[in-house]
Write the structure tokens for this entry.
Amino acid sequence: MAASPGRKQSTSRMGRPRDEAVDRAIMAAATDVLRQSGYGAFSMEGVAARAGVAKQSIYRRWPSKGALLLDIYIQGMDEDGAVGVPARGLMADFQAYLSQSVQRLQDVAWANMLRSIVAEAQTDAALRATMIERVVEPRREVGRHILRAAIRSGELPPQTNIETVLDFAFGAIWYRLLLGHAPLDRKFVRQVLEGLFRPNA
């Protein structure tokens, strides 16, 4: 996995390359601790104990628990494969796009992980910048492509503010993710679509 901008580059004081097996053990342990104990009880000490490594071994790789969790989340995104949707028209394409965005979040553990990362990012500017670069912007760029195509085809008016449409769509998703007051599912995705593109239907 490529190192994220917030992740420390990995050579020891003697110049030896970092042990990727230790990386994997730490990331697996962090995932287990978060799943079993929740974010409130999540600590680098607990991860170190679960992974069987010294706490400093973690801090040499990740500057904070938020950076560690973000790398785990990004790795999961990489394993999901490239983001893309077929060109079938605005409603079908945007529904597929938003459904991809919420699919992973239907897994409680992944949803909790993203909530935890967002919480850390509120007071960690470097983590927030990395999250925007590695998680938020790649998703938004796919949405921009869909909306630009809809403008070219006449499905949306030329004056459509693409960034605002994306803010509305993802604002609704983030609101449900962070508050957890209602399901984040395919039915909700359809409701968001109707509100965005068929408000008078």
Observations:
- The chain has two domains: 1-81, 82-197.
- The first helix runs from residue 20 to 37.
- The chain has nine helices and no strands.
- Confidence is low (pLDDT under 50) at residues 9-15.
